[in-house]
Amino acid sequence: MDKAKIRLYVDQPLAQGQTVPLTKEQSHYLFGVMRQDNGAVVALFNGVDGEFLAEVTKANKKNGEMACRAKTRDLLMPPDVWLMFAPIKKARTDFIVEKAAEMGARRIVPVNTEFTNAERIRQDRLQAHALEAAEQCGGTYVPEVTDLQKLDRVLADWDETRHIMFCDEALVGAAQVLGDVAADKWAILIGPEGGFSEAERARLHELPFAHAVSLGPRILRADTAAVAALTIWQQHLGDWS
Amino acid sequence: MDKAKIRLYVDQPLAQGQTVPLTKEQSHYLFGVMRQDNGAVVALFNGVDGEFLAEVTKANKKNGEMACRAKTRDLLMPPDVWLMFAPIKKARTDFIVEKAAEMGARRIVPVNTEFTNAERIRQDRLQAHALEAAEQCGGTYVPEVTDLQKLDRVLADWDETRHIMFCDEALVGAAQVLGDVAADKWAILIGPEGGFSEAERARLHELPFAHAVSLGPRILRADTAAVAALTIWQQHLGDWS
């Protein structure tokens, strides 16, 4: 069987021999847009069972079907790290979600801070971005994108066994101080373009489970900071080492 | 004097008391678009002398002038690391250049590899992007963006005292192996979307000054890889530690 050029996320159980019905959208995409036909091979994943090569068994533009052949990849579950960020301009917010999915964040949590410019987000659109990033980068897991929440409420209800690594612009130029924190659950918090407010910063510094880190001597945009912070976390505490 | 909300790169010497003539474009931007007037305060940098607060002394939309007051920042020279990358789609190429400038690359070198999709680049547009990134992120240095060159020619003429950290997709999942290389000059090399060709990979692995690294167990897009690789380099060998 050829290697698949198309990867699709399906909300269906996957196992060898399993028949997989396609949605109307997927059928239209595969057989209308991509002009695939019976026998064509596509890689399927569902965020749970890993990746399978599947063969088109019904090339119908409205309700196609596939049959799962060989398993090609196990599920690569990301470490238990969330990315919390303050939404910024549309293109850069999309970018942060895409990058968090690529870099192996388990959950993506948009938060409203005092200096956040965005009043609302399109959660469904951001979720679709995370899914597309997984489809295009060979991912087998799709992080959940939550609805926009207020940072102070999120912190008020916080599970204190989940530690927070927050990127403090005021620490620009300071040494890395993540140290040896023994915690299994983490969240990375990136501030908005205008930085955290004084009250937010003071509160974060007081939380015993929150750890401020510096991202070097240059001021980074929020989207850059998200990738850099995930790199540091994955290297020190995640599955990059 | 107020803190400046506008930062401008000027191709002029800067020193306390220095008069700085503005170009037609800068004059149009400051006095036409941004409606600044005499006495307004702008931050100026030229990539050499650091950052100065300067005051508008001639608010003319065609040939304005400023006077340098206090020095507000020293030049933050990036470590001697280049970012070499294979240009991809326009938006992502722009993004790589912006991120390289933010993350403190000293030079940005687009290279054509066997699997590179781009035949040419607009060097002037990419240089403008690097400059804008510095203006917006409080940078005091602007990396030079070179013209597109062929990777094999670049490697044929290589200064062997400059070591290369290259991100090998075939190493996805392998351990980090940058180790303790004693070199002052570095270049990071990111491959194209399709990866390096077998011949390119073999050649890179043979070069005594080239070091393959892994960027974790997930396949990253080229733009993500650029930020992640710069983060790793800055942390281990650059000015983030």
From TrEMBL, chains A, B:
Cellular location(s): Cytoplasm
Family annotation (SUPFAM superfamilies): alpha/beta knot, PUA domain-like
This protein's record includes keyword DNA-binding: no
Gene Ontology MF term list: rRNA (uridine-N3-)-methyltransferase activity
Catalytic reaction annotation: uridine(1498) in 16S rRNA + S-adenosyl-L-methionine = N(3)-methyluridine(1498) in 16S rRNA + S-adenosyl-L-homocysteine + H(+)
Pfam families (alphabetical): Methyltrans_RNA, PUA_4
One GO term of the biological process aspect: rRNA base methylation
Coiled-coil segments on the chain, per record: none
Record function comment: Specifically methylates the N3 position of the uracil ring of uridine 1498 (m3U1498) in 16S rRNA. Acts on the fully assembled 30S ribosomal subunit.
Name listed for the protein in its UniProt record: Ribosomal RNA small subunit methyltransferase E
